[in-house]
Each structure stands twice: as structure tokens, then as C-alpha cells.
Design brief:
The chain contains twelve helices and ten strands. By secondary structure, the protein is α+β, with helices and mostly antiparallel strands. The strands form two sheets. A six-stranded antiparallel sheet has the order 1-2-9-4-7-10. The longest helix has 19 residues.
Length: 301
């Protein structure tokens, strides 16, 4: 851990007096703390920049695992069903993370000011990448963080510092992914359409032809490009959304398994239980009891 990262970690530790996700007065900026390792937590993660300052985090997208620690960051450029797990944390050295949600309109405005051409992005691969935080990224993050203790400065300085941080990220190898998010170009725009349609209709029976039509792709092209971004098929993506929402309903709304399964589109309790166990490793009842006992269902990436 370098000196700047250590200083940032100390400031986040002072600003967070308990475990969890802490919203700040700075728009889209959150601080995350965990004083102990956690079980895997599944969620639909929206586009964001996540910088680890202390501890280590493991993130799973389909069967792929990404692990990062101090001075490394995660960029998520599409809505992705991820699993996150803090793997290194203690009361003396808690896991500490700075998270900035990425607003596509701000990103596209920045790239327009940079006179970035709206050509098709050259890069491919999943809509999630890891990177090393440069000195410029850490400096911009530090100044954005300092605004929390200078609330009068937030309206004027926060927009500039947010743009600077995004600008610094764009100087690295992640530009193509963020470029896709900003401009909604080519295949990225089509996959974004497919994701949006599945999110809005995940309770309905899956219809590959309809998703392909919405994305304006053939079914074979949709399957190929969708999997390159999300590392899963459109049907697997829908199942993840269903199961995550069912789990949320049971944990936070107190619904029983049958009601939660039916609410997200399952007509067969046995199918719901079977697919739930395949993803979470336990039956719905056992999994929810375990999570409630550990009070471990508020962890974010």
C-alpha cells in the first residue's frame, strides 16, 4: 500500500463508523466498510468505479473470478449480475472502498469535450475490468473525498472533480468499455438494449426471438455478443435476475420461498428451489436462515 492509498484509507475509516455502504453528500460517491470477511453476496451491479483502499475483494461474473486489493480498481460498464465477497478484512484493518456510480450522461459530455470520435470501439471482452490506480487517479479520488468535509464546496467542485476522475480513468486501457457506455455504440448499444429489455421483462417466460428483435440482432449473433459482455447467455442472465430478486424478497420483505418464486416468474416451486440451490448452494429456506443469522446481506462491490 503506497502512502496516498494509506492516507485515503485512514480518511475513509474516520468517515465510516460502522460496516456497510455509506452514501455521502457528494453525488454518486459512496464509502464501503467491512470489519470481517463476508460470504458471497449477489446483486445487479450498475456502471461504477470501485477503488479498494484496504483489504481485498473477490468479484464473480458467471464463472470468472476477479480479485483486487489496495490501489486497484474495478470498472463496471454494463448492468451485470455479480457476486461480491470481502476476502481480507479485520477489525484492526477493515476492508475500505470508494465507489463512484458512473452516470452515462456525464461520461458522454466529458468525451464530447475531449473531441473523442464516435467510431466503433476497438475493444471487446466482458463489461467488467480491473486496473491499477495511477497517481493521477488517486489524487483525483483524494480531492473528491475531501469534499465530504467541505460541504459548501460540493456544488461547485464535485462536478469538476468527478469529471477529472473519469478523465484519468479514460487515460488507461479501459477507455473502450467506458466509451461504449458513453456513446452506446455498435454491439454495445445492441447488448445494452437486450439487457434493458430482459430487466424490464424478467418475470415473463423467456423468448430469445423477442430479445434478439429488441437488440436488432439475429439470435446467434445476440447469443455470441451477449456472452462476450456478460459471460453468460441471455437466458442465464434472466435466471440470475429472477433468483436475485427472489432472494431479496425473502431477506428484506420476509416473503416465503413459494411466494417469492412465483413473484419473479417461476410457476413450479420445485424448479425454483432447484435453480436457487444451483446458484446459492443451499435451499431457499436454509440460505435465508443462514444470511439472516449472519446479518450479511448488505455488502456492495
Amino acid at each position: 500500500m503506497n502512502d496516498v492509498t494509506q492516507t485515503l484509507a485512514g480518511k475513509v475509516a474516520r468517515l465510516t463508523d460502522r460496516d456497510g455502504i455509506h452514501a455521502t453528500e457528494v453525488p454518486r460517491l459512496h464509502l464501503i466498510r467491512s470489519a470481517q470477511p463476508t460470504e458471497k453476496f449477489h446483486l445487479l451491479h450498475e456502471p461504477a468505479f470501485c477503488l479498494v483502499l484496504q483489504g481485498r475483494k473477490r468479484v464473480m461474473l458467471a464463472e470468472e473470478t476477479f480479485e483486487y486489493g489496495p490501489s486497484r480498481f474495478l470498472v463496471v460498464s454494463f448492468d451485470l449480475p455479480l457476486a461480491g465477497q470481502v476476502v481480507a478484512a479485520s477489525r484492526e484493518h477493515p476492508y475500505l472502498c470508494l465507489k463512484l456510480d458512473i452516470e452515462p450522461a456525464i461520461l458522454s459530455g466529458l468525451m464530447a469535450d475531449m473531441a473523442w470520435e464516435k467510431g466503433a470501439p476497438a475493444g471487446g471482452g466482458p463489461g467488467l475490468m480491473l486496473g491499477d490506480a495511477t497517481a493521477d487517479i488517486l489524487d483525483a479520488a483524494a480531492r473528491l473525498l475531501r469534499l465530504i468535509e467541505a460541504p459548501d464546496d460540493i456544488p461547485i467542485l464535485a462536478p469538476m472533480l468527478e469529471r477529472e476522475l473519469l478523465y484519468r480513468i479514460l487515460q488507461g486501457p479501459h477507455a473502450d468499455h467506458l466509451r461504449s457506455l458513453a456513446f452506446g455504440l455498435g454491439r454495445s448499444r445492441q447488448i445494452a438494449r437486450a439487457i434493458s429489455w430482459i430487466k424490464e421483462n424478467y418475470r415473463a417466460p423467456f423468448n430469445m426471438a423477442e430479445v434478439a428483435s429488441q437488440a436488432r440482432l439475429s439470435t446467434s449473433a445476440l447469443h455470441s455478443h451477449f456472452k462476450s459482455v456478460t459471460l453468460m447467455s441471455p437466458l442465464q442472465y434472466q435466471k440470475r435476475l429472477r433468483l436475485q430478486e427472489a432472494r431479496r424478497r425473502m431477506l428484506l420483505d420476509g416473503e416465503d420461498a413459494a411466494s417469492a418464486g412465483f413473484a419473479v416468474g417461476y410457476e413450479s416451486p420445485s424448479q425454483f428451489s432447484r435453480e436457487y440451490r444451483r446458484l446459492y448452494g443451499e435451499s431457499p429456506l436454509r440460505d435465508v436462515k443462514k444470511m439472516m443469522a449472519e446479518n450479511d446481506f448488505t455488502t456492495s462491490l
